[in-house]
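At this stage, I wrote out one protein, both as residues and as discrete backbone shape codes, and that material follows here.
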Amino acid sequence: MAQIVKRAYKYRFHPTPEQASELARTFGCVRLVYNKALEERTRAYTQDGRKISYVQSSGRLTEWKRTEELAFLNEVSSVPLQQALRHLQAAFANFFAKHARYPVFKSRKKSRLSAEYTRSAFRWRDGALTLAKMDAPLDIVWSRPLPEGARPSTVTVSRDAAGRWFISILVEERIRPLDPAEAMVGVDAGITALVTLSTGEKITNPRHERANRTRLAKAQRALARTTKGSANRARARLKVARIYARITDRRRDFLHKLSTRLVRENQVIAVEDLTVRNMVRNRKLARAISDASWRELRSMLEYKAQWYGRELVTVDRWFPSSKLCSACGTLQEAMPLNVREWECACGASHDRDVNAARNILAAGLAER
């Protein structure tokens, strides 16, 4: 039975100089409102022991707009400013629920430049999208069509460090689950092989960051030689950002294709519950682990499995998948990382990663 899900479609767009200027002002106002609200909530909690709600923060926003110092907040759409307060409220809710750390201030240089518009702040007509405070629709590169009859409920405009403009359009889409499949697979994450499947197949790690490491290092050295605040430094920083953007785009494209393939081919997918945050503390492996992006692959498998009627099973991170013989169940005392192939006392010969993937699948099926 088809289910209705909220799905975001992301596109590049090319703003006019006037639109770019308007969006830049909006980004700055969103950051300012978020930071001022966070400052007030932090002060109220630490000094007076009281909590400030979203409604109270919204009231403070109205007061700020009436002051001479912050009157410029009236020049941009009010909706992205209200959405910034809602995001802050969600951040505090996650913090108090112990799902996230305490909210931090948005940095002018390091934070993502974005603004969120709800339905009252944009016009969608005949496939053209016009944001509040703008006279003309955005010049969007429609790399793929929206679902037929879909109407955007929220749009998020952003600009990355490489200077590219993006718009993410949230719509409700009816997705039909895939036909049931007989296959089931265990997935063992690695570095040399990005993933090893219980079928014996190994997916080679593309190592996107490593492939561009020389080019990136050269660009970073050129950036380090420039003078702070100069035009040359701005151009050098943009070059570095573009290399990073290329790495990120290629990595995400590869992970999308891999996750889609695993979900289409298998009814049940078993994976390890890895704690990547702790693993990257290993200085020798941190760079390779980050380049592999296991966490992003896991996230893709989760929502795609939910969309298409598949089952994703997670196995405890302490499960000894590498030291356990998948043939007889004997647990080896030790299994150093340099041991890639080994033989059990029962006579079974194992490839370390394939054996681990088979054990992950068996453990995942046992926990269903």
